[in-house]
Amino acid sequence: MDNATDEPARARYRRSAGSPRGEARRRELLAKITDDVAENGLVDFSLRRAARAAGTTHKVLLYHFEGAEDLLRQVVFALRERRIGNALTAVAAESPTLAGRVRAAWCSLRDEETRLRRVLDQAMGLAMYDPGRYAALGRGASQQYLPTLVSFCPPHWPERRKLEVAEMILATLRGFLVDLLTSPDGEGAEAGVAALLRAVEREEAAP
C-alpha cells in the first residue's frame, strides 16, 4: 500500500457519498479497479495502481473512497458478489434440495476462473497475515457467504439449525477450494465434496 492513505491526505478531499452523481462515478471507478484486480491479483495493490487501472489519479480516488484499505475491501466485496451471483445462477437450475443446491454451488466454484479464486484466497491470506490491518477482509467473507448458504436450507428448519449447517458447508467448501489450488488433479476435493453431500443428505433426512 502506498502512503496516499494517510489521514492528512484524506482530509484534503471531500467524500462523494450521498451525491447520486458521485455515487455513480464511484461505482464506475470501482468496476474498473475490480476488473484490474480480478485480472492481476492483489500483489502490490495501491491507490496509484488502482488509479492507473481506472484511468484517473489517486487524488480522485481519495475523493470517492476513504483510502487504499477501504478501496481494497470494496473490490474484494464486489468480487465475492460475482462469485455468489455465479453460484446462484447454477443453483437455480438444480433440484430444490439442500444437497442439490450445495452440489450446484460447488460445481460453480470448482469451474470458476482460477484467477478469481486466487484473488479471493489472497484476500483471506492478507486477513490472516495482518489481521490488525485486514481483518475486515476475513470477517466480510462469512458475512457475505452465509446468508446465501442459509437460504439453501429447508425453510421449516429453525434459524439456529440453518446457521449451523451453513457454517459447516462454508468451512468445508473453503478447504476444498484451497485443495484445488494446491493439488494437481483435484481428486481429493471431489472425494471430500461427495462425503459432504452425503452428510448434508443425512441432515436433510433427520427430523
Automatic annotation (TrEMBL):
Q: Which UniProt keyword terms apply here?
A: DNA-binding
Q: Which InterPro entries match?
A: Homeodomain-like_sf, HTH_TetR
Region annotation Disordered: where it falls in the sequence: 1-24
Does the keyword section mention DNA-binding? yes
In what residue span(s) does the HTH tetR-type domain sit?
23-83
Q: Which residues bind DNA?
A: 46-65
Q: Does the keyword Ribonucleoprotein apply?
A: no
Give the superkingdom in one word.
Bacteria
Q: Extract the GO molecular function terms from the UniProt entry.
A: DNA binding
Q: What is this protein called?
A: TetR family transcriptional regulator
- Origin organism is Amycolatopsis rifamycinica
